[in-house]
Write a structure and sequence with these properties.
single chain; about 35% helix; alpha/beta; five-stranded parallel β-sheet; Rossmann fold; 2 domains
């Protein structure tokens, strides 16, 4: 039986490429050229599978892809994919859960510490030569993390990893808001499930970890921000559009909250002159939640395994439908 053919929108680490090439013929896009939607549709027209990390897909894109069985992405998030519509055309969409949980939790806790203790802005102050004998002690103050209250909005796998670090390492009290109760987390960490408004009113650190859906778009807006303490930190490691960025910028400017630490944004990369870049009470990172070599390689290999399984006519391990 001949091997199926798969298309990669970008190259992968050797381990992932080697796995795919054992079972499939590979076609990899030349990344020096822009991959337009028209070009992508053309590439998909005669393949059995595709890896479209960071691109997304809908039914219109694949309407001429009669052989296509699977679209894989080397990410956890899949909000750019019409999973239900593609499933109706017998196309699996797969992601890469589990392999990045600890790595993302590490980054989120780094953001918590930087947001509270103003590590990033004070680093820039020192580099710019603005730490002088005239610098007042009070101008360097941040907020404590140890023994404070952490509020997690979205208690999934990564949320639980953050809670573990918060409770075991920093003695934090834990509140969470989630669609369903997590009794095992409540028992292990003393976490308490509360309504969103209660969490926002009581937490010293609010961490957003919900997926982006129609229901969660701008979940945190002007009204929600107004409920937070003036000393509170808002941390986002989910998707940028879960927070109304304009409302957040206004809250930061008016200092109605102490600060924010963000790894995700409504528009990525942040364009030059963006208002967030002008603020001194934010930590900003370029969507690096899973960005370590070991984790990205593990994600690529998992995505490759999903791609191969689907291209061979099997149901992939991480099929979303």
């Amino acid at each position: 039986m001949s091997k199926p053919t798969v298309f990669l929108a970008r190259s992968l680490p050797d381990a992932a490429l080697n796995h795919i090439s054992q079972f499939c013929h590979l076609r990899i896009w030349d990344e020096s050229k822009p991959l337009t939607r028209e070009a992508l549709a053309h590439e998909l027209a005669d393949v059995d599978g595709a890896m479209l990390t960071g691109i997304g897909a809908d039914t219109e894109l694949v309407k001429h892809a009669s052989k296509l069985k699977v679209i894989s992405t080397a990410t956890v998030g899949y909000d750019g994919f019409d999973v239900a519509g593609l499933a109706e055309q017998n196309i699996y969409v797969t992601n890469t859960p589990y392999v990045l949980d600890e790595t993302v939790a590490d980054l989120l806790f780094g953001l918590i510490l930087s947001g509270a203790r103003r590590i990033a802005p004070l680093h820039e102050q020192v580099k710019a030569g603005n730490w002088t004998k005239q610098t007042t002690a009070q101008s360097l103050y941040g907020q404590d993390v140890y023994n404070q209250t952490l509020g997690i909005v979205g208690m999934g796998r990564i949320g639980e990893k953050i809670v573990h670090r918060a409770k075991e390492g920093f003695g934090m009290k834990i509140l969470y808001h989630n669609r369903s109760s997590r009794p095992e987390v409540e028992k292990k960490y003393g976490a308490k499930k509360v309504e969103l408004h209660e969490l926002l009113e009581q937490a010293d650190v609010v961490v957003i970890m919900v997926p982006l859906t129609e229901a969660t778009k701008h979940l945190i807006g002007k009204e929600e921000l107004s409920k937070m303490k003036e000393t509170a930190i808002l941390v986002n490691g989910a998707r940028g559009a879960v927070i109304d960025e304009a409302a957040l910028i206004e809250a930061l400017k008016q200092k109605t909250i102490f600060g924010a630490a963000l790894d995700v944004f409504e528009v990525e990369p942040l364009p030059p002159g963006h208002p967030l870049l002008e603020l001194d009470n934010v930590t900003l990172t370029p969507h690096i939640g899973s960005a370590t070599a070991a984790t990205r390689e593990a994600m690529a290999l998992r995505a490759a395994e999903n791609l191969v399984a689907g291209a061979l006519g099997q149901k992939p391990r991480d099929a979303l439908s």
